[in-house]
Amino acid sequence: MSSQTPNWTKIAQSPRFRALLADKTAFIVPVTAFFLAFYFALPLMTSFSKTLNRPAVGSITWAWVFAFAQFVMTWTLASLYTKRAERFDAQVAEIIAAEKE
């Protein structure tokens, strides 16, 4: 194996790599679960409940407010992931640097 090619097996077995995977899982799984629950709440609540059919402001119903909130939620989650990805990238750089030593 050349000196420039990382030893991927060694990296995959390292505690730092396992910590990276644990950190990513700890962030991605709950955020994905929240996203899916929030996303599917709108069609479920409009199909099986009358709660969102009530007017919120004037003739605008809570269904429209909830639908707009999904855009806000999506941008917020994307922003959170972008900030968290910077930490993940720093962890990856540390892992690669440690492997090269």
Structure, explained:
This protein has 101 residues and is mainly alpha-helical. It has one domain. 78% of the residues lie in helices and 5% in strands. The protein has 3 helices and 2 strands. Strands 1-2 form a two-stranded antiparallel sheet. A hairpin with a 2-residue loop joins strand 1 and strand 2. Helix 2 packs antiparallel against helix 3. The longest helix has 39 residues. The radius of gyration is 21 Å and the shape is elongated. It starts with 7 loop residues before the first helix and ends with a helix. Pfam families: DUF485.
- Summed over residues and divided by their number, the pLDDT gives a mean of 92
- How far is it from the N-terminal to the C-terminal residue, by CA? 15 Å
Described by its quaternary structure, the protein is single chain
Could you give the order of the helices and strands?
HHEEH
Which structural class should the secondary elements be placed in? mainly alpha
Supply the number of helical segments: 3
Low-confidence stretches: none
Number of strands: 2
Helix content: over 70%
Shape: elongated
Question: How many individual domains?
Answer: 1
Which range does the strand content fall in? under 5%
Largest sheet: 2 strands, antiparallel
Q: Report the radius of gyration as a whole number of Å.
A: 21 Å
- Record the strand order, biggest sheet: 1-2
What's the arrangement of secondary structure elements?
Elements: H1 8-13, H2 15-48, E1 55-57, E2 60-61, H3 62-100
Antiparallel strand pairs: 1-2
